[in-house]
């Protein structure tokens, strides 16, 4: 089997675009996400287009037992993972702290922080056993700054930033590369998920400027993953040209 990339949240947006790019580059893929139908459709498409070998595993990253059971259940040959893309994540709501929806907070913390940890705990041990690997964590500019009403989402992405640094130190003796990629505004299903299906409100986020698209991030992640083995990109922030900070967007 060729090199293997395991991508969490491959059913949409950045994760799906990464699946396309890594398939194009000859990787075999383990694709995960909750929406099984989308995983099946994507796997069949990539297999036809690139003749890619693909394993799919449908689970909720925020459910510790599901993560354990599903990753344990992957056939042994597929555990020889070269690149883990910790991409599954989401934002829920945009409320001031005093009005925050506590269920939204739990979902973001459970997915963006605990989910990333559950997956990394298992896959980093496979990598240690295999003597190689690269973990690429999807952070955000929300992990580098804080914006109005972004409170808990920003806190989860600050946690990803800290975990990225911590993993890099802890995995150093094992030669495992660790990188965080922190995008600004990328037009995916992200805002639709944040606003719970309100497409109009989601669309307004990208009004009047050219946001990044998932492909921009996937190509950047490919750049990071395809550096020579002695090169580790620790931290990469990528923005639309029209965006300077989270709240500073030049709209026409
Ligand atoms: N779009 C942006 O502006 C932006 C900016 C900075 C950072 N990011 C980060 O980039 C990552 C990808 O987001 P995106 O923009 O591509 O959004 P997206 O289009 O909504 O995709 C999110 C992906 O995460 C998966 N996911 C969410 N919750 C999950 C769970 N509990 N278990 C398993 N998978 C789960 C979804 O799959 P299922 O629903 O099928 O499970 C989906 O495949 C996220 O970590 C996000 O925070 C996005």
UniProtKB/TrEMBL annotation:
PROSITE patterns: ADH_SHORT. Gene3D superfamilies: NAD(P)-binding Rossmann-like Domain. Keywords: Oxidoreductase. The keyword Oxidoreductase applies. GO terms for molecular function: oxidoreductase activity, acting on the CH-OH group of donors, NAD or NADP as acceptor. It holds the Pfam family adh_short. The keyword Oxidoreductase applies. Coiled coil: none annotated. InterPro entries: NAD(P)-bd_dom_sf, Sc_DH/Rdtase_CS, SDR_fam. It comes from the Bacteria. Belongs to the short-chain dehydrogenases/reductases (SDR) family. This is SDR family oxidoreductase.
